[in-house]
Amino acid sequence: MVTAPAQPDARQLVVGRPVATPRSAEGAASRALDWFGVDSDWERVPAGRDAYRRDLLLGAGFAVLAAISVELGRSMGIFEEVREPLWLVYLLGVAGTVPLAWRRRYPLASLVLVYGFFLGLGLTIPEITVLMPMQVMYFVALFTAVAWARDRRAMLVVVSICVLVMFTWLIWMFAVQQGIETILQEYPTPADWPGLLDPYLASSAYQFIMNIAYFGGAVVAGQMQWNAARRRRQLADQTVTIERQGAALTDQAIVAERLRIARELHDVVAHHVSVIGIQAAAARRVLDRDPARTAEALVTIERESREGVAQMRNLVGTLRSVPDGGGPGGPAGANPASRAPEPGLADLPALTAADHDGLDTTFRQVEEPPGAAADVPDPMGLSLYRTAQEAMANVRKHSTARSATVTLRVVRNPGALDGPQFEHGFAEVEVLDDGRPRHGTSGSGLGLLGIRERVATHQGAVEIGPRATGGYRVRVRLPLPAPAPDPVAASGAAATAAAAQVEPVTSAAPAAPSEAAR
Predict the structure, then answer these.
(1) Do 354 and 364 touch, CB atoms closer than 8 A?
(2) Does the CA dihedral 69-70-75-77 come out positive or negative?
(3) How many CB atoms lie under 10 A from the CB of residue 236?
(4) Most exposed: 54, 138, 314, 376, by fewest CB within 10 Å?
């Protein structure tokens, strides 16, 4: 049975005509329909054949209990006034339980058959309907219809009609079968009443309360089970989605890390191998004429090869999971090179001053205010260093330039450039040369692609191409994060605010890019 607040909504659904109701009533109706899952696109279907097999066993169990209860009722004299043959009483009692064998396969049809059979028995042999297995069966049928119906609108219609018919029969039973005359003859005046209320009124109220609890309990319990099953399914779907998204994020992080390492390896290999190639060619040309210069070239080759191997080992070491142990230095056998710090802005002068086989190089550093380079985060410094390293390698391999200039600019002044991107200043590295592209030395383009990817990681700007006045320019500009608050100034402001009994309002500065952003 539909409970009192929800029953008018079910009747509106059956009639299908608009009713002018207050806004609060519309809200209650909407909440009731939502609770019953009327607009839900989820269908509760039993899992596998085992569920239907258990329903068959349940129906057989109710049939056995019905036969036993009929015999017990006959032994208690319940069927003494029944004029139908005994075999028909047994048959009707057992046949009424048959629809439960398909209660979850066809829940609404099972409900209609059970309650139709109940109504027929109530009009012909009502003694069968009062048996306990029958009462439990009616509850199970209504509970199953609400808990397992696929079409929730059809469920509301069928359940409302069945409950309405059952209460109509109940009213008719009190009005006709029991009759008012019997009670009036037994209790003709209020003085004869055994209690404060009219016996007929008390009996009717008692039966109605019991039936409301009976039918309402079946409906509420069935709907609560349906809602719980829907929540479990939603949680299972959300779990699968979260696992899928977690796997996708993990794959994305792995790909990003591989791209970062690929850029690092390309820059390291391109720089050191190009230096080694140039020095080897120079040593071969002067091998017989100038042994001192040949030895100097070989020393450069040795130094570059060692540095390249050390940096590549450092990069490859990030791919390995090193277990703890072995004291502060790590496990025994761990390579110290894998723990070497990565290069940064402080290494740009050494990079520029290295022997570039006759290329005249100059390094310039511009800071505004002085010492602003110390505010550049390490990941950003590494990106600027790798940019200069790749640009210098390209100058040696692909240009006829005789001179090159590496300029580092760190400007912290707010508003140094237009736009919110560089509102806290910028750090940039610029590599200029005076040469032309050398024919037959076109590269793969991965180096320039790596530069652009680094800049995109830091939301910066990049300019790569020939200059109008001759030569080639590679310039990368990265936005600086907001400066950290001055502890002295912050403490002074806090003290001033405390003295004025005014709570200061502070704004958190954006955090510097993490190591994972490199």
Answers:
(1) no
(2) positive
(3) 10
(4) 54
Q: How far is it, in rounded angstroms, from Cα 320 to Cα 259?
A: 16
Task: For residue 342, give both structure tokens.
Answer: 């990565």
| Residue 442: Cβ-neighbour burial (10 angstroms; 0-12, 13-18, 19+) | exposed
> Are 375 and 410 contacting, i.e. CB atoms less than 8 angstroms apart?
yes
Q: CA 481, CA 458: separation in Å to the nearest integer?
A: 10
- The secondary structure of 298-347, three-state, reads HHHHHHHHHHHHHHHHHHHHCCCCCCCCCCCCCCCCCCHHHHCCCCCHHH
User: Strand pairing of 426-433 and 403-411?
Assistant: antiparallel
What's the half-sphere exposure (Cβ side, CA atoms, 13 Å) at 454? 32
For 376, residues 6+ apart whose C-beta sits below 8 A from its C-beta are 345, 384, 410, 427, 480
Q: What is the mean pLDDT of the chain?
A: 77
Q: What is the SS3 assignment for 30?
A: helix
Nearest-Å Rg of the Cα atoms of the chain is 44
d(CA 487, CA 516): 27
Residue 390, token pair as written in the block: 């790749």
Residue 202, H or E segment = helix 199-285
479 Cα distance to chain centroid: 32
Paired with 403 in beta bridges are 360
Q: Which single residue is written with the structure tokens 């560089």? A: 422
Which of these, 123, 63, 132, lies nearest to 96 by C-alpha position?
Answer: 63
Distance CA 447, CA 443 (A): 9
Q: Let me know how long the chain is.
A: 518
Is 481 in contact with 304 (CB distance < 8 Å)? no
Extract the tokens encoding 135: 């009462």
Q: Are 311 and 268 in contact (CB under 8 A)?
A: yes
Local structure of residue 176 (DSSP, 8 states): I
Closest CA to 386 of 262, 275, 247: 262
HSE-CB at 121 with a 13 A cutoff on CA atoms is: 25
Closest Cα partner for 90 from 68, 111, 109? Answer: 68
Cα–Cα distance measured from residue 11 to residue 424, given in angstroms and rounded to the nearest whole number:
66
CA nearest to 46, candidates 133, 122, 106, 95: 106
Would the pLDDT of 438 be above 60?
Answer: yes
**pTM score of the predicted model:** 0.50
Gap between the Cα atoms of 127 and 135, Å rounded = 12
| Beta pairing partners, 366 | 409
pLDDT tens digits for range 369-397: 888 888 888 888 888 988 888 888 888 88
Section 40-61 average pLDDT: 85
